[in-house]
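Reposting from the mailing list since nobody answered there.

I have sequence plus structure tokens for a pair of proteins and want to know whether others read the tokens the same way I do. The first protein:
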Amino acid sequence: MIRERRSKEKLMNYYERFVDESVMDPNVHPWVAESWEQSKQRGITSQTMPTLIKLPKDELARRQNLHHAAMEYLNGLYNETREHFNVYNLSLLLLDQDCYVMKNYALPFFQKSPGQLEGARLAGEDIGTSSISIVHEHKAPFLLFGPEMWIKECQDGDACSVPIMVDGQLVYIVTIVSVEQEELPHSAVVSLLLSIRYAMEQHLTMLAQLEARHVILDSVPFAVYHIIPGGDVVYSNKLGKSRLAGIDAVATKDVVANLNDVVLNYRHTPLYKGFKGIPSYNKEVTWITQRKTYEDITTVVPLEQDKAVTSVVAVSLPIEDLRTLVAHAVGYKARYSLTSMVGETSAFITMQEKAGRVARNNNHLLLQGESGTGKQRMAHAIHQASGRAAGPLISLKCGDILPEVLEEELFGSGEYRDESRPGKLELANGGTLFLDEIEKMPMHVAARLADALKTCKVCRLGEKVERGFDIRIIAACDSDLKRLTEKGAFFSPLYEIVSKSMLRIPPLRARREDIPLLAEHIISELAEQHNMLVKELQNEAKELLMSYEWPGNIKQLQGVAEQAFFNTEGNTIALKDISLLGETGISTAWKEDKDIFVEAWKVAGGNISRLANMLDVSRVTLYRYLKKFGLDKE
């Protein structure tokens, strides 16, 4: 605010009349008048500068470090105009939002040396009316003439203060005190301060925005680089720095080596094309360095000025990170934990404790147990309890697909570049690959898998490019895989690899006391899933469940419990509500009666292997009857 020059004699008269007689002249500026009233009410002496409140040295150092950006910027502005301040006997102060002096520039302020003043508080409650207190109150620039100061000792100089606002908040106050009042026009002082204010607010706002952008860029799962012609990286986010360090592209702590010297195929990458003005979007790129070769998905955008490329921005995502993101996005993660498994028998407790131990090592694992015993759930639980829990869990059932399809599913396909896609070995990178019914894997596929697991490298079908991977295999087998291997029905080297650790899952009949607990757990899960009340099992129903042999094991129990839960009225499941086809004289009637066959299929939960166990026939036989009754296996 540029105020007209006022008569110092008149201002002094207004001041003395108020101090001595408490009479406020109507010509006193409203903000000054308000501040005088507050100063008098607070009992602040009007004669000499009182002892100032000061920050402890450690707190002052902490605040100065916090405000170093503003102090450094004002240092630069002051150094450019230092001579001007000296010639006209000007003082310059930087105060924080609490009116503590962070820095005292130029000549002494109110006869205080810089060491005496820095860390002191100059708020209205400390020194009464000043340009600082008025700006702090009203958040607007203000020029205060000497006689308007509350303390007479300070009335020899005029003072002008401006607020420094960022995002609508007061962050600093900058003050200039002028002693040579006749030599320097007030308008020059005000103009200087307004210029400082504008420059500082723009600078601090830009710094805040840059800091926010740095935080954003450091938190995204992409490596981001700003590169100038020739291959020098002038900026990289946190992940980008990590990637550069991984290929020895960091020359010193703060200097990045020239990519043209580090990337051996630099001229064949989108970066080189980018400097020719050719952008690339989501392109799969192979980077070859002395240390390693890796692939990523890269986007390169040229930045132009006057139609000339001045630099490029590159954003990349390593292929393995992309696969992990995709795997999690589509739900390739563990759905169960070891604590979610139910049982109290010694057989169950022993199995659960061993599962916890093997989960913690990184060995490949073989799960053996009859169909329906919960091997898939156990695989999920072991993955969840392992050091790979953050990685994907990919499942592949070896007995459900043709051999040539199984090979493509495992290793991926690269016969045609447009259709090149990763297999399960690549998708499971960093996590676990669960191979169910591994005993049904063809010999040639098993041999190729064994080689891949030994070298930790895989080639997609039709390609010669080797890609590294890091996975843990959890294999599941319904029969004795060792015996099958000894008979020559399973590839021996693969058996040696996947059986480094082994866990046997007991059949349900070997843990009968757990059956009621399991049934109640299944019913509780069903009630939660379908937002229904939990139904209670009567003791007679529990005894029936415990008396049954359960050839389909837990999966069969799941089907029986589901049927009872949904078909029982009320909240109690009685003996009459339980349907056990194995106990109702099913014999071979299902072979001629479609309804009986469908009912048995429902009890088996729609699982062919489980139904085969229940009916004591082969899967091939079941497929024949599916066709006979006009049913689809899905």
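The second protein, same order (residues first, tokens after):
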Amino acid sequence: MIDVEDLISLVRNYNPRTDEALIRRAYAYGREMHAGQYRRSGEEYFIHPVSVAAILTEQRLDDATIITALLHDTIEDTKSTYSEVERLFGHEVAELVDGVTKLTNLQLSSSETKQAENFRKLFMAMSKDLRVILVKLADRLHNMRTIKSLPHEKQVRKSHETMDIFAPLAGRMGMQWMREELEDLAFRVLNPEARNSIMRRFITLQRESGDVIQKITQDIRKELEREEVEADVFGRAKKPYSIWRKMEEKQQGFSRLSDIYGFRVITETEGDCYRVLGAIHRRWRAVPGRFKDYISQPKSNGYRSIQTTVSGRDGKRVEVQIRTRQMHEVAEAGVAAHWSYRDGVRAENPFAVDPAKWLASLTERFESAEDHDEFLEHVKLEMYTDQVFCFTPKGDVVKLPRGATPLDYAYSIHTRIGDSCVGAKVDGIRVPLWTRLKNGQSVEIITAEGQRPQATWIDIVVTGRAKAAIRKSLREEDRERYIKLGRELARVAFEHVGKKATDKALRTAARSFGLHSGAELLARLGSAELRAQDVVEALYPELATSRGDEIDASRAVVGLSPDETFARAPCCQPVPGERIVGITWRGRGVVVHAIDCPVLERFEDQPDRWIDLHWHSGKHPAVHSVGLYITIRNDAGVLGRICTLIGEQKANISDMEFVDKKPDFYRLLIQVDLRDVEHLHTVMTALEAESDVAEIERYRNPERAE
């Protein structure tokens, strides 16, 4: 355990004016409060708070934050109280310790709704003082470094929590080094086989090609010497989790993955950054689409660097970051730079984002979230995204997350422009609204009076701001339509258990969901924010769980008028449990498509033909045919076993076609009759596990559209 004098020395290195006496008192008080407590590893518990404090000294944080780290578990786990901490160490420290205690009590990995509610509380705590989250992140980092002493189940739960929440949060706050370490520590627990495989491949690669990092570092230094630029060059292999994620995203094996090395060039001036960029691009071929200038357009968390990828030695892709020393300090410290000290003076870094403004911009986008689930969706969207920079027709820059569409762009300018959007031009060319924008493109939005947001836009946009605005507009514009659809959904669901959806029953159900009225409940049902089955279960749990009657296949879809008939679209073959939409055809009724069916693009300019539909929430019969492409080994008895396996899953084969025959493999198109999407998943999982099945995928054919 680090003793108090060593800890004070760590602080004194960057803050000679530190209040040594106060830190000694806090150290002694924390040790006294935790006396007799031990960690799972058998070590004295106080080792943990001291280690957290040491992590925060690496970020050069102020005395109040260091003392908070030493005391962060006292109110929660000992006889200490808020008033005692306030009396001994002051109001600032007491508030920080109390904030960390409240965050510790949040069960962030619990059910989705509870998680969302707690996430909102987390951001409220952050808005009071961001140092609370800095202590919590350091606390999580030390716990992950020592996670091996916990039972395996708890290791997995904590690692999921770290991967889902704390690692992205660290990245969003500019602390990329912490994000990478948290991800790697969690990856070690969640997928040790994959991590070990990547480490072994690195060793093999190094044995075969020598020290690539040293060779490329020398190559870059030679170019800089030729340009007479003073700079430091550092290289490293990327973290195993980062490599694994790239392999998953690109569906490539390790041997085909090229950019597994990263290099950093640290210069003295901003001008030198661009001279280094020129030297590197003259020496090596730049990879198209992989250049980002975050110096002229900083990220919202204060990050500034030039990032480029080049085809380097032996054709290997090499990622290079170029930044000044000041930019590097911000990139390493992130938001923590606001409380960092140097020579006893708080560092005011000109490149760091103002945390108050960062939180204000974040909170502003979440204000329209009417419930905890929407809030959670918006938070995750904000934290997990990188940025693209687009230009308005006047040349102004608009920052958007990666994957953003012209609709996101429109809503980022003004809600009114987003709501009335009918089309977009990118670099002067008309494009569909679902087009993914790229860096440097110029975007022009085409609007029309009377245009209103469509329900399908929710699945097109990626920003929390756009999703919230669309939902709000849909709720306002289509409230009556949603209430009408919700009433029909409720009527069918209640009748299925022998009850009536009376106004009183709906009001009672609304209260159980924290809603103000039965009309609000119906609107949520109609907009698919609530399921009719959940409403029934809230009032009649014993009936909802005991239902056994199957839904009549001719009444499987809710949302049609009494005289309308429907048919499943052969192009996407939707099944109960999947989100659906109807397209009307004159004289032929309604054709039901899955919401992600590419054929729907053909009807985007015909909103009058779209109908909001839902599957009945009861139990469906196995009559919904779905095509599966299956590639199997050509051997005696294999086809029979596959057919038997499908039958064992209570699924019937209604048709079979040999698509391709090879000496070793057959490719089949099998039509299987299923109940719902869960039944489909069960069948596909069973087939995937069969050793004689080489490949299985769901059949989708836009050419078969109605």
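Reply #1 (J.P.):
I read it the same way you do. The chain has five domains: 4-190, 205-346, 472-543, 557-615, 624-704.
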